[in-house]
Amino acid sequence: MNKLPKIRKVIIAEDVESISAGIEKALKEFNPQQIVHTRYCDDAWLKLKKAELDNDQFDLLITDLSFKQDHREVKLKGGEELITAVRKDNISCKIIVFSIEDKPVKIQSFFNDYFIDGYVLKSRRDNVELAKAFRSLILGETYMSDEIREKIHSKKNISKVEEIDLLIIRQLCEGMTQDEISQLFQQRDIKPNSISTIEKRLKNLKEDFSAKTNIELVLIFKELGLV
Question: Where are the 4-aspartylphosphate modifications (predicted)?
Answer without folding.
Answer: 64
